[in-house]
Amino acid sequence: MFLLPTHTELAAGYGDAIKEDSIFVLQKAKQQESVIWKAVVATIQNVFDSKQPPFRIVLKSPQNPGSVATGHVIAAAETLKGIQKDWQWIEDNLKPELTPLEDAADQEAFALSKLHSLVSNQEKDTDEKSTDAKFRSASLYACAYGSKLMNQGWLYLSLSHLCFYSFVLGVETRIVIELKDVEELHKDKSKRGVFSDAIRIITKNKTEHFFSNLFSRDETFDLLEHLTLIAMNRLMKCTLSDPAPGLTNEEQEAQEAFALEKLRISASKRALSPRASFAAIGLASEATSNKDAKDDVPLKQAFEAQKRDTRFQNQFCLPTTERLMYEISAICTLSVSGDQNNITGTLYISSTFLCFSSTTQHQCFLVLPLFAVKRLERVTNSNSANPSVSSGAIAISVWHDMKLLFSFLSDKQGGDAFCARLTERLQAHVGLMRGLKSFLVTCSSEEVLSGKAEVSNGGLGIAYGYVDTKRTKEKNKMRYWIAYLKEFGRNLTLVRLPTYIKLVRMGLPNALRGEMWEVCSGAMAKRYMNRGYYDKLHEDNKGKMSLSIEEIEKDLNRSLPEYKGYQNEQGINSLRRVLYAFSFHDPEIGYCQAMNIVVSVLLIYLSEEQAFWVLTVLSEKLLPSYYSTNMVGAVVDNQVFEHMVTKYMPLLTEHFKKYDIQLSVACLPWFLTLFINSLPLTFALRILDCLFMEGPKVLFQVGLAILKVNGDDIMKVRDDGELMNTLKAYFLSLGDTLEPGAVQTTQPQQQTTTVSNQKTITRFNQLMLTAYREFQMVSNEGIAEIRKSLRLRVIQGLDIYAKRSVIRNLNFNPKFNKEELLFLCDQYYSVLYYHRTGKRRGTDRLNFENFVAFLTRLTLWGRFELAYDDEDEDETPAPLSARGLTSTSSSNPAPPQVGSRFLNRLFDHLFDTNHDAFIDFADIVQGLTKLIHADLMARIDLFFALHDEDHDNFLNKEEVIQFSESLFFLLRKEDGDMYLNSMSTLMQRAFEIAHRDVTSPLTGETPPLFDGADTRETDLQLPIAAFRELILGDVFFVEYFDTGFKKTFALQEIKYVEQNRAVRQEMMDSLWQSGVSFANRMGGSKKEKEAAAGGSALAGTAGVAGEKKEESDDESDDEEDGLDLMNEVGKSM
After folding, report:
1. Is residue 180 within 8 Å of residue 800, measured between CB atoms?
2. Which of 70, 337, 367, 835 has the most beta carbons within 10 angstroms of its beta carbon?
3. pLDDT tens for residues 686-712?
């Protein structure tokens, strides 16, 4: 592998030269002869990550007389074959261009530029760590495993795995954890709780892993958490085997047909080449399933960019397509009631929006689409004392003739860069500005400010009335809102100030409620940028049916039936069209119960298209995964809510545990229906107003306030039913007024204060005051963090439940126990997780390639080898076809590989019983039952049937040879070489038995066909009886077919940690041998008297050895006794 050229000294003692010419030298690193010193050096290299590659190529530099020879390392490899490949490339491509150059300095300069260009093209868009390919898809961190510093090593994070490796004083530790198996992630402390430098990981089988001594703990944890959440989302899609409910019947049929055709093509290719190489299957690395990932971008860099964009999108409620391009500190100058207010904050530019957020929370908030900007002017900041430092200001005129002034708080270079990027994005949105005038006609605020008494843009409330119709309240609200909209913009250009927040919390007027929901959620901009999309959805899917449509039709008449608008066809049709459109828009979600309740309320204040886009924002941003098939988002938020109840009201939690009261019974509907089905609709609308403005934290604040206000009554309940009745009675009384002095709240300092009772206070006012004052510490950011920590556990629970459902649906009685079936199901879906044949869910069947991957998870013999061995330095590399790559040359056919034909037979004969080229979990269980739980004779007959290709109940010569190849494939991982002798004997006896069976039973003579002929060259015929005799005649094969083959299947949880102490034992043996040699040398150099004394000591030692010899009955010399003793010492150590 070529590297960026690095300067080095050739006389530094790296190693020996294997190949060398006047320009390049190929070197092999020196190996330490002493085992002990080798282990010490390896430990140091592991801790400091300074291990040198075994082979390298150096570009020589021109050498001056008397100076040290130097050069540049341009390539490195772990094997000789790898480095020879690079050397050959140099000879074929680089040397011909260097030969015409006579000057050595010119040769070096040309070679360096060529190699820099080569590596840079391969490593473009990478950071400083990415000069090596291993950093493209993995991040590397130094840490220690466990609480012991001595087990120092390196933590590797990739898209699907967490790995750890250490080599300390002869003990090698390897850890491989699949991120989809992680259940809990925690930041922890090490060194007895002194330093915050540890991460604790708990997997789904409750195995705990502790990584300490992390110098970048927070960075590592954030990346690990992000990757794990990605893995969890993939896991959920993998386990959901049913088709996407929103897909139409035609789309489902097309998708299944495409998946089946893909599998059949794969099967036909396998049939054309039944002995295809295992490497051709493409299963050498499960990470290859992530083909959509950008390999040329480092994982850490991609994560940081995505994290920054996600934070920006959540802060301003923007679409997931928005990317943060530039940000700068600035001062926003606004005219409020004739006074100039300067507000400090941060100004952002994204693909489509210009956003501003004040440093002080809620002081100023702006989300301005770039297509709503009319004019941009660069203004010189005359107030700056140092013009070279100040970058000036910009004045922006928006569509509604409002002018915004932003003064930059940065150097001139930063201000210029911001203005250049803003100008570029404004030019890109000139086309969108042209249709803005016709779009604003659909906004109710335009009608209100024009002086119209009644608005014509809105939902069913215009025709059938609104829920809250008190004219006095509506007039007062409208007066305040008209004044605010005239001064601070409206719809797409609205600036949100503290006054705006107060007006929303007081309750939105009916005429403006729908538009404010659209503006706050960001749905209005999406509607404008996707004009015509809603109608196109209906046109493209007209007359089509799906599972979601069937469910929608069942729930239409159960959606807010008390409202007049849904007591006729107009309201029902509007609801139907919105739900239909969303199921077509997002077929993965399709339709979920409770969605109809939310949409029925939206349609009172919004048109069909407006309600559709608000629903998309709810499902994607505000309430993610709430309405998915398994409602994982709602389940996670319910656990987040219970976590908050435990934190803020521990007495209630203890009471619920004492009487086994399930809080989720009462609270889960709150989140799914946004309190619409629980509270009177008038008050539920007030909560919706705050939800769209402030985000999902409002749901948690209101829920906590409900339990807080009713705490005394809840402490008296004894079961779920009493809890439901208590809360129901409270909800019915929300409109009641409270007596003076009855409203009390607890401030954060735990001081009780009385709210002013000069105005009439209702129970709902008390509830909202409690929510905002008692639980003001609840934030959207905090909720997001708790969601991350609990989402892993929830998804693992849903995953296990789904797999148990698959097991329960088996229509036969398997011979495996529950734990084994769950393990098999987990491995089955793990293969689908990495090797799913289709992008959408529903393709939950394995083809042959996936079947081989499944076997590698259960058996050692299922793990294949490539057609060549990198460690064999004497062989030339195998052709491309042998490496699993497509070769167009017919002169280099793929060589046959041991075991490939056996696995093909196993798949076709035992698992794919209906011969359609794919198998499901039931086929896996039935096939493994025949393999594992068969008795001796049944297993022998099974192997006979597998190799009887022509089904004539005889094995011919070729089939017997193939049977021997299958045995070699199955036994190649066995310890020792006993199986080789047994296989040799088996082949000899096979021909002997065949020769015996063809001998005439009457005359005892061999027929002419066999007379004087070598039976090894004839076409033998081995019946099943002779095949049984062949196996039963060898003790080794009797044991193997009876119990040995069954033991090769590991139906248990995977061991994440592997430790190899062989090197430590080798160190101890070497130490003992060195000690014995030293003692012998010292004894030989003593004087005669000392030698006599030494002889007595040796005699005593020999006596001890003799006693050991008598006890063990093992004839061994003194050195072997010493090794035995050393083994005992090594074990104790």
Report:
1. no
2. 367
3. 999 999 999 999 999 999 999 999 999
Q: What is the edge-to-edge ordering of all strands in the sheet holding 403-408?
A: 373-379, 393-398, 403-408, 326-336, 339-349, 353-358, 365-369, 495-496
Candidates 590, 586, 426, 606; CA nearest to 523 is: 606
**CA–CA dist 94, 115 (Å, integer):** 9
Q: Is the pLDDT of residue 984 over 70?
A: yes
Two tokens, residue 854: 């499944």
**H or E segment to which residue 335 belongs:** strand 326-336
Tokens of 544: 């089509």
CA 608 to chain centre: 37
Tell me the three state secondary structure of residue 660.
Answer: coil
Whether pLDDT at 782 is above 80: yes
**Using an 8 Å Cβ cutoff, are 796 and 201 in contact?**
no
Residue carrying structure tokens 């499901």:
920
Q: Which two tokens stand for residue 458?
A: 């809105």
Highest mean pLDDT among 78-87, 395-404, 936-945, 1059-1068: 936-945
How far is 877 from 883, CA to CA, in rounded Å? 9
> 154 - beta bridge partners?
142, 165
Taken as a whole, the chain contains a residue count of: 1133
Both tokens of 865, joined, read: 């080898």
Contact call for residues 726 and 714 (beta carbons, < 8 A): yes
Own/partner contacts of 1024-1031, CB < 8 Å, gap of 24 or more, are 1024/941, 1024/944, 1024/953, 1026/993, 1026/994, 1026/997, 1027/940, 1027/944, 1027/955, 1028/937, 1028/940, 1028/941, 1029/993, 1030/986, 1030/989, 1030/990, 1030/993, 1031/940, 1031/986
H or E element that contains 15:
strand 15-20
End-to-end CA distance of the chain: 41
C-alpha 300: how far from its chain's center?
A: 14
Task: Write the Ramachandran bin of 328: left for phi over 0, alpha for psi from -120 to 50, otherwise beta.
Answer: beta
Are 421 and 326 spatial neighbours (Cβ–Cβ below 8 Å)? yes
Rg (CA), the chain: 38
* DSSP E strand stretches across 134-276: 139-145, 152-157, 161-168, 171-178, 182-190, 195-203, 208-212
User: If we measure between CA atoms, which residue out of 881, 1027, 892 comes closest to residue 963?
Assistant: 1027
What CA–CA distance (Å, rounded) separates 570 from 567? 9
Q: Give φ, ψ of 1023 to 5 degrees.
A: -75, 175
The CA–CA distances, whole Å, from 424 to 317, 409, 434, 834 equal 23, 21, 18, 42
Is the sign of the CA dihedral 577, 578, 583, 584 positive or negative? positive
**Closest by alpha carbon to 920, among 1020, 996, 811?**
811
Instruction: Check whether 1064 has a pLDDT greater than 80.
Output: no
Per the CB < 8 A criterion, the answer to whether 584 and 623 are in contact is no
From the centroid of its chain, how far is CA 448? 49
Give dist(CA 423, CA 419) in Å, integer.
Answer: 6
Give the Cα separation of 544 and 352 in Å (integer).
35
The model carries a pTM of: 0.76
What would the two tokens of residue 1005 be?
């003579």
What Å distances lie between residue 37 and 170, 861, 940, 1028, 1062, CA to CA? 10, 36, 52, 56, 16
Q: Considering only CA atoms, which of 519, 518, 594, 517 is closest in space to residue 560?
A: 594
Pairing of strands 744-746, 495-496: unpaired
CA atoms within 13 A on the CB side of 503: 21
Q: Indicate if the pLDDT at residue 1082 is higher than 80.
A: no
Q: In this structure, which long-range contacts are made by residues 815-822, counting pairs with CB atoms below 8 Å and at least 24 apart in sequence?
A: 815/929, 815/933, 816/925, 816/928, 816/929, 816/1051, 820/1051, 821/925
- Please provide the average confidence, as pLDDT, over all residues in the chain: 79
